[in-house]
Amino acid sequence: MTPEALYLSPTAKLPYCRGCGHLLVVRQLSNALEHLGLPPRSVVLTTDIGCVGLADSLFPYLHTVHTTHGRSTAFATGMALADAILEPQGLKPIVMIGDGGAMIGLLHLVHAAQLNVDITVLVHNNFMFGMTGGQHSALSPLNWVTATTPEGNWTPPLDLLSLLRTAHAAFLARQLATSQELASTLADAINFPGFSVVEIVELCTAYGTRWNQVSGASLQEIILRQGYTLGEVETEMERPTFRELYRHEMESPRPKRAKPAVPCINAPAKLAGEVRLVVAGTAGERVQSAAALFCRAALAAGLYSTQKNDNPVTQGSGFSLSEICVSPKPIEYTGMESPDVALVVSEDGWKELQANGTVAACREETLLLLDAEIEAIPPRGRVIRLPLRREAHPKRAALSAMAAWLAKNPLLPAEAWQAVLAAEPAERRAESMAALEVGRRLACCSGGL
Amino acid sequence: MLAEGALAAGCRFFAGYPITPASEIYEVMMRELPARGGMALSAPDEISSLCYCVGASLRGLKAMTATSGPGWALMIETAQYALMTETPVVVALVQRLGPSTGGATQGAQGDIGLAEFSTSGGYTLPVFSPSNAAESFELTIHAFNWSERLRTPVLLLSDKEVGMTSEVVDDEALQNPELVNRELATAQADYAPYAAQEPEGVPAFAAVGGEIKATVTGSAHDSQGRLRKNSPQVIDVLQRLQRKIEAHAEEMALVRPDLDPDARGLLISYGVTARAARQAVGKLRTEGWRISFLQIQTLFPIPRKWLDRAAAGVEAILVAEENLTGQYRAALTPYLSGKRIFGINRIGRLISPSDIARAVEGVMA
């Protein structure tokens, strides 16, 4: 087999119109691959939609992936990313995409440039959509006549290479399809170890030359009129490649965020049935983390628990609440039909419980432990008011409320609390213990709990 | 737990984009996957996320992404590409209240239709729906296994309530299904990338970058992967894509049945609502109601034999789901002929055991 036969099939019937730039490109791509001597199985030709997308069938020994419109770059990026953690490495994805595909898939080009992933993208810029009937594209020059701009294009064309340069693309070049240097530019791009793009300027002979007074000879003039240059564009070529960046990142010491440990204790909780509890307060005041601490203590004491959090779409403002169920048996329904206990430590929390129907769902026997600053009068339930925010701190009020409730209703053995607090980071532990202490103290002075 | 399931299933590639309520999966994968020899990466949008996963899978890695309704809407084109090219990939779709951006922090089961009926041609996408943390782990492994075995995209349909509620999981009780890997092509001169032994078979896989030439295309193709028009072989391939799923429907069927042989009514549910339903059934039975319960975990393909078995002898069937129009009920109805079928539907908050009990009593009284 001749080297050439490894790439472009010599018997291939090229499915392009007479004079189409794609004819030149597929031949020069084959020449570039032959020049580089790349083993065919190390190359994957990833083609986009449009006439250029038919090129994959012309290279019978390369891996070929014919994709969806504009996404060829993204699929090729995925292959190259995966290749970076496989042995042996060295897959070379080459993307063939048109000017239309480059625009609809612009984001994929930008991200591939940022990653500096080892793929080569050939953008076949014939200034229009050919396969679909000659509509104008984002890269059409001004005054370019197309099916959709019969009076000439009036939107300025996108300078794709300048845009990709700002995305840190490492190798950028522009060539005419008719250039004698195309094969060597393609070879340089493919040989480049990071992200490379070659914009190949060509003509659609079905529509471009029919509606515009142009020929192959005037291509250069069109390009220069737009202020573009031919050949390689100066870039940050010394950037590390994706493989180097990723390896470096993986070899750097990464702080491990340990999951909070849940210790086992030998003092199981004596709980007859399930208890449903809602804790509500203000975002950023450690309502949900207090709930999580309680659930860990319940787990340490051998109970099942569920914790269902809610907050507005923003993370740090408005209400924050947790609906908790603890039970000696596995828990099915995680919602709150009617709470046994409601710990409400701020006005925000109260308003949300009113809005979401929890207040209305309280029973006469529901314990409502409210911060003293909440002025509302619940329609029913056993209501206790304690100065949690003032005595503890707004950020410790939820935990203090729990301690106050549990002081008179020992759901969990003291060992469970001690065990989960011991597993907390030292700073947080001191704060939590102080909060629990305030809660217990307030409970002592209060009847009704 | 869904992320843990993916890790246990052998997932080695994850690309994600932030979206509530699926971001926790993204964060866990970013933290855990590289430490276990895989790669996790941030994509610039959901389209890229799934394209990267499909590309990685074409290279030979098990891959997954996670999103919510708005992100899935963007991924549908690529999911269809995975279907057409027979590329294994798993998408975790953690539902929230829709339509459009909807309610990011509110749960819902409103994407049944968007998930299942998202392909031109109406192909069956396997969909598994966990109701709790343990099932999230187990069904994720099943999802990967079926994705590999049948070379198809598979959806995990979770929701905010299942995905973001913390709960206690008994490690020792977790099922660890045996892992399945896609069948690899062995080097041979006459390898045809889209040819299978049987009309409902699955072709052997040749990885991009391997010794055997991979030919991949999302356009209508024959068994060789050649674009063809008016070729009976193309139609054969298009039919095989559906037949391979249907042929394994019963094997794929995962349910948690709780049937009463003398039941007059059958309650069907899935996902988070199945939990309220199970609780309601327990209460209803203590009050003397004869009712069967079927929690469906494999939503699609529809587990028809289980439906037949559960519906045998009952007069009324109720389907409880957290959406407005009864999307899954509509999908089940053609297979429940001769029965009175009712929906238990609400949106905006969980359907409660009382909601369900009241509806059952109303129908069966």
Descriptive tags:
heterodimer; A: 449 residues; alpha/beta; Rossmann fold; Pyruvate-ferredoxin Oxidoreductase, domain 3; 6-stranded mixed beta sheet; 16 helices; 18% strand; elongated; B: 365 residues; 2 domains; 7-stranded mixed beta sheet; 13 helices; 14 strands
Brief summary:
Chain A has helices at residues 21-36, 72-83, 99-104, 106-115, 160-166, 182-191, 208-211, 219-225, 242-251, 287-300, 347-355, 358-361, 388-391, 397-408, 414-422, 426-444, and strands at 43-47, 63-66, 92-98, 120-125, 128-129, 135-136, 171-176, 196-201, 231-233, 275-282, 304-310, 319-327, 341-344, 367-371, 382-386. By secondary structure, chain A is α/β, with parallel strands linked by helices.
Q: Which class do the helix and strand fractions of chain A yield?
A: alpha/beta
What does the average pLDDT of chain A come to? 93
Low confidence ranges of chain B: none
Q: Tell me the name of the CATH class of the largest domain in chain A.
A: Alpha Beta
Q: Which class of secondary structure composition applies to the elements of chain B? A: alpha/beta
The structural domain count of chain A equals 2
Distance between the termini of chain A: 91 Å
Strand content of chain A: 15-25%
CATH topology of the largest domain in chain B: Rossmann fold
Shape of chain B: globular
Question: Which range best describes the helical content of chain A: under 10%, 10-25%, 25-40%, 40-55%, 55-70% or over 70%?
Answer: 25-40%
The CATH architecture classification of the largest domain in chain A is 3-Layer(aba) Sandwich
Give me the CATH superfamily of the largest domain in chain A. Thiamin diphosphate (ThDP)-binding fold, Pyr/PP domains
Helix content of chain B: 25-40%
Largest sheet of chain B: 7 strands, mixed
CATH A-level architecture of the largest domain in chain B: 3-Layer(aba) Sandwich
